[in-house]
Amino acid sequence: MRKKQNFRVKIAEFGYRCRNFASILRGMRVLLGARIGSCLGALTMYGELSAIHILADGTRIDLGVLGRRVVTDDGVAHLVDDWDDGSGNIENFNFHDSGTDNTAENVTDSNLIAEAGPTTRATGTKSQPSANIIRSIGTIAYTGTLAIVEHGLFSTAARTTDLLWDRTVFAVINVENLDSIQFTYSLTVNAGG
Predict the structure, then answer these.
(1) Residues β-bridged to residue 183
(2) How far apart are CA 149 and CA 168, in angstroms?
(3) Using an 8 Å Cβ cutoff, are 140 and 115 in contact?
(4) pTM, 2 dp
């Protein structure tokens, strides 16, 4: 029985990754730009979002990379303000939220298009897997049926105060009551040279 369940999970993972191929393709432009920029000696910075869909029964479906995007204009301005006078508190970008609108990402985004799920954002756990990568892992638990297609990393837990670091759109993840999604956001900063 366990083999059969593992096979179903693998099929679900493969199926999602195929459905999400368009998002991965859009992100390749970001990754290619970062690689070319590094070769030319430019500093580059991009975000990568991956996820695990945790079903109500505890089954974990590894969805892999959902997308790679650039940091928003607001995120960059906040970074510069923090460096300039310490007012930015860049370390606060550790709150995960999700939504149900698949309007394409844009560096001018300042919020999710249609926030959905719990009214308070999930607090992430931060780590630094290497000298040039900062990571935040946050799990959002759902209490209803939703079609999740967007994720944002924010500076506060409350939806009333928004400062968006990064927004990613991906193929639909259908969640039901008591499902959760564990989002992993990694920011890679490549030094110029």
Answers:
(1) 51, 138
(2) 8
(3) no
(4) 0.91
- Would you list the DSSP string of 71-97? PPHHHHHHHHHHHHHS-S-GGG--EEE
Give pLDDT tens digits for 162-189: 789 999 999 999 999 999 999 999 998 8
Q: What does the block give as tokens for 141?
A: 């638990």
Q: Give the per-residue pLDDT at 90.
A: 83
Per DSSP, the chain holds a count of helices (H) and strands (E) of 3, 10
Indicate the burial class of 40 (C-beta count within 10 angstroms; 0-12, 13-18, 19 or more): exposed
The number of folded domains in the chain is 1
d(CA 54, CA 140): 10
Mapping DSSP to helix (H, G, I), strand (E, B) and coil, where does residue 111 land? Answer: coil
Give CA–CA dist 50/68, Å, rounded: 9
The parent domain of residue 93 ranges over: 2-190
